[in-house]
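Final report, results section. Input specification for complex C-07:
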Amino acid sequence: MNIFNHRLLKCCMEKNNRLCLGLDLDNRKLKVNTLSYFEGFVKDIIDTTIDLCPVYKINFAFYERLGKAGYNILSEITEHINGRAITIADAKRGDIGNSSKYYAEAIFDTLNYDSITISPYMGEDSIKPFCEYDKGVFILCLTSNIGSNDFQNKNIDGEKLYLHVAKLACDMNRNNNIGLVVGATKNNQMESIREYSKGLPWLIPGVGFQGGSLEDSIRIGSKYDSLPIINVSRGIIYAGNGSLDDIRFATEEYTKKIRDIL
Amino acid sequence: MNIFNHRLLKCCMEKNNRLCLGLDLDNRKLKVNTLSYFEGFVKDIIDTTIDLCPVYKINFAFYERLGKAGYNILSEITEHINGRAITIADAKRGDIGNSSKYYAEAIFDTLNYDSITISPYMGEDSIKPFCEYDKGVFILCLTSNIGSNDFQNKNIDGEKLYLHVAKLACDMNRNNNIGLVVGATKNNQMESIREYSKGLPWLIPGVGFQGGSLEDSIRIGSKYDSLPIINVSRGIIYAGNGSLDDIRFATEEYTKKIRDIL
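Structure output:
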């Protein structure tokens, strides 16, 4: 079954969860500040949560800043997960066609991620090369930061820019491998995005530290038989004292909350 | 002199040129397809053009697809140029504040690039961390691809999205280190962007293979004492038979044309 959105759904159903664990780990916040400890700890987090987590999101910024060693860890992560969960390269790429093709190659072939986040500013031809793989493409629609008001939330021909993005994403979803990034802090806007994006899966950041509602995110995200993927990063990886036990416990708590809502 | 836009201008004045050579090199198009040959050839291109070229733009997609080895070359390039020209990391990054901060660290500190291209879709707080360095930030404004019509060219409150981006860029230019990416294929739109972006330098792709006018790009880009940086990639690196002699010759030709217009 190579259709990405089917694989994503299957993995979520099998683990009876919608949780995406964001591995946005800052090595300087760990108790031992060496890169080998960092790499080992990332793998330990994965192993202690992977029976519960169907999806992992890896924020490339946290690894690229570490240079060559960070780049290696990005590659080690997919090797370590090895099909036990879906991986999202949260890399927010996007360029003209030829370059996007090479970014797709970098993320999907070279680093072997299952999916990627991309920025839609450059339009359809910048997105298309990513969609031609049997991998997933999560397009930034409405993000959870304040800056989303600067452009995303502006009206174009009577409709918000983020709705235009949702519409283009639907039109482009010929391989059933496109999803949207929709911030959980924007509850009142989620309803209209769901109308426009029909059955596309959503990757939803903003629950947890940023204060978005888990219940509303799942409720609105699930309409039209759609799949909401709830990303939690700091709320889990820095839970309690940040020990593996605390991380396991927080993952169980989020899983329980999600299952209760489902 | 640590103000980026001053450094950029100084380098252009000293070399009496506005040419940015885009090192968008595909290793599979070279006569020897090994990564060590590729790395050597990139360095040879730099050495054979650096007396003329004030700026080099490195498209990260072409290097990231090569994995670890490509990542190394990204780092080797800045070491090799070593202050002899301004480097632009054409990486089109952009994320929420905390992550943008780490991308800035990755590009400016770890890889030691002088400047970066970024996507504005996520708004001001996604751009700000890059501007807090004494390095340069080229914000995508109006790009040269067809997809620029999908969102950039749409009206928001009676003004094109790209003009809103130009306005925000101006407002944010407190450290005099912001520039815009403005495609040369959009001549009739360049005039209005110049009005809005006042004295910001422009990085102008789209001359050469994409058919933009060199003369108009320099003429409009130079208004209000501004600095147009003309990017040429394929038109130089694949000139003639793609030999170093051909690359040198094409660089001289572009330099001559630019000097004639100036």
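Residues 46 and 188 of chain A are 34 Å apart (CA to CA). Residues 244-261 of chain A form the longest helix (18 residues). This concludes the modelling results for the funded period.
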